[in-house]
Amino acid sequence: MNLLFSISSVIAIVSTLMVITRKHPVHALLYLIVSFLAIAVVIYQLGAPFIAILELIIYAGAIMVLFIFTMMLLNLGKETIDQERKWLQPQTWTGPVLLSLILLVELIYLLSKSSSQEHAITGMDTKIVAQTLFGPYLILVELAALLLTAGIVGAAHIGQHKRRVSHRFLEEYNE
């Protein structure tokens, strides 16, 4: 168990460092997804499978789709076609795919090794989680949703402003 925990931890650290050092935002997002997957495996190994599933659903799923949608919204234009072709090159996907495959093999091994009673997801009642989130923490959940929405609107506004400024500059330059 310590070896698998160490492998997952190293993958989480390496992929997080790759997020920080990538120049292209899509590359950084790919490594961020791998980092979330590695953290979910670490959480699963610590004996909290329900939290690991929530990590996958909320962060690796919903939040990453939100980030990708925002990036697509900001990168509208003719130059993005060439940029998207560069992102589809195999060297873009090699690193995240290799790290994800290591995590997949590790997770399959953990699931086949563990007994059904050891890591039963039914140990945590989803009704209790829902009542906690939407009971005393309802305002915090709504504020988080509002903050994400404001971030997207702000990013879209900044992207539109940059596009308008560049079009004005080109029009003045051509005159």
Descriptive key words:
175 residues; mainly alpha; Four Helix Bundle (Hemerythrin (Met), subunit A); 2 domains; flat
Can you describe this structure?
The chain is mostly helical and 175 residues long. It folds into two domains: 1-116, Four Helix Bundle (Hemerythrin (Met), subunit A) (Up-down Bundle); 124-175. It contains seven helices and no strands. It has helices spanning 2-21, 25-45, 49-74, 79-87, 90-113, 126-133, 138-174. Helix 2 (25-45) packs antiparallel against helix 3 (49-74) and helix 3 runs parallel beside helix 7. The longest helix has 37 residues, at 138-174. The protein is flat and about 65 Å long.
Strand residue content = under 5%
Based on Cα principal axes, name the global outline.
Answer: flat
Please bin the fraction of helical residues.
over 70%
Number of strands: 0
CATH architecture heading of the largest domain: Up-down Bundle
N-to-C span? 69 Å
Number of domains: 2
CATH class of the largest domain: Mainly Alpha
Please count the helical segments: 7
Largest sheet data: none
Structural class: mainly alpha
In quaternary terms, these chains amount to: single chain
The named CATH superfamily of the largest domain: NADH-ubiquinone/plastoquinone oxidoreductase chain 6, subunit NuoJ
Rg, Å, rounded: 21 Å
Spell out the helices and strands N to C: HHHHHHH
Overall mean confidence score, pLDDT: 75
Low-confidence stretches: none
CATH topology of the largest domain: Four Helix Bundle (Hemerythrin (Met), subunit A)
